[in-house]
Amino acid sequence: MGNNIQDLIIIGAGPIGLACGIEAQKKNLDHLIFDKGCLVNSLYQYPMNMTFFSTSDKLEIGGVPFISHNPKPTRSEALEYYRRVTTHWKLPLRLYEKIIQVGREGDFFDVITDKGSYRCKKIVIATGFYDFPYLLNVSGEQLPKVLHYYKEAHPFFGMNVVVVGAANSAVDVALELYRKGTKSVTMIIREEEIGQNVKYWSKPDIINRIKEGSIEAYFNSQIEEITEDQVRFRTSEGIKTIENDFVLAMTGYQPNFELLESLGVKFHDDEYRTPVYDSNTMLSSAKGVYLAGVVCGGLKTNKWFIENSRDHAPLIIEDIDQT
């Protein structure tokens, strides 16, 4: 094990993980922030031309002003902002370092990564939910043409594309593909209508594009098989097969339950598998393990955002500082 015993280790270098690091910095607590990907990896995975729901002031952390060209910032402005915050606070990052195992020995945690070993007194889980997509669990899903993340429309120009899902991300992707020269856009939707929570400016747009036939949509439908050049799916009127070059599965994502379980975090007996934690301190049911950000909502991934979970950081660090 490393010689230095950290006061805390933060798993996840997203905005909330960084916010926890900033609060730890203020209290002069020894800490490290780990992420298996890049800085704010979830935001990096967003579509390139995405605009946030929140205004820039509600995404601020660490007292660093976030100035954007418009009230609601873009993905690239957010990436630049969090780089600036990290540099300003000189946060101790360990990027592209994956947590392999976390064990407990007495009052300490032993954290094993793919690059080293560390010991700490407390753990903060701020892993978000964007790392584990819901799988379709169908034959052919492993083909390179099946993607669970979407960056931009250009690679799909002139292609036959299937979009799976009917929530915000699926609707945004379908509309952008249609407008950027994709040969055909087909939505395969398990539900009977476009999602209730789709943004008010996108919903009439997608409904009208479907109505006029610019975007084909099959409701109450489910993919059964994906091949190199086709997709076979079940509809309310029977099995249908269409020509296909790419499948974009915009089916949502889930938290790293495996990590939480391995640390002994308990869950409420509800449909969302909500972790048990104290809302005053964010301390979970597992001794010394704190939860921050989206992960607190379990499968209800639309409960916590940057703007309403920034406050988790001072609660956590205050409690750690007093124990």
What does this structure look like?
The chain has 323 residues and is α/β, with parallel strands linked by helices. It folds into 2 domains: 5-132 and 253-322, 3-Layer(bba) Sandwich (FAD/NAD(P)-binding domain); 135-249, FAD/NAD(P)-binding domain, CATH 3.50.50.60. The chain contains 8 helices and 17 strands. It has helices at 15-26, 41-45, 75-89, 168-179, 203-212, 257-262, 306-309, 312-322; strands at 5-11, 31-34, 93-94, 99-105, 108-113, 117-125, 132-133, 146-147, 160-164, 184-188, 216-218, 222-226, 230-235, 238-243, 246-249, 253-254, 289-291. Strands 1, 2, 3, 4, 5, 6 and 17 form a 7-stranded mixed sheet that branches. A hairpin with a 3-residue loop joins β12 (222-226) and β13. α1 (15-26) runs parallel beside α8. The longest helix is centred in the first third of the chain and has 15 residues, at 75-89. 39% of the residues are buried. The model has no long low-confidence stretch (mean pLDDT 95).
* Number of structural units classed as domains: 2
Number of strands: 17
Give the rounded overall mean pLDDT.
95
CA gyration radius, whole angstroms: 21 Å
How helix-rich are the residues, as a percent range? 10-25%
CATH classification class of the largest domain: Alpha Beta
* Main sheet overview: 7 strands, mixed
Principal-axis shape equals globular
Percent of sequence in beta strands: 15-25%
Secondary-structure-derived class: alpha/beta
Low-confidence regions: none
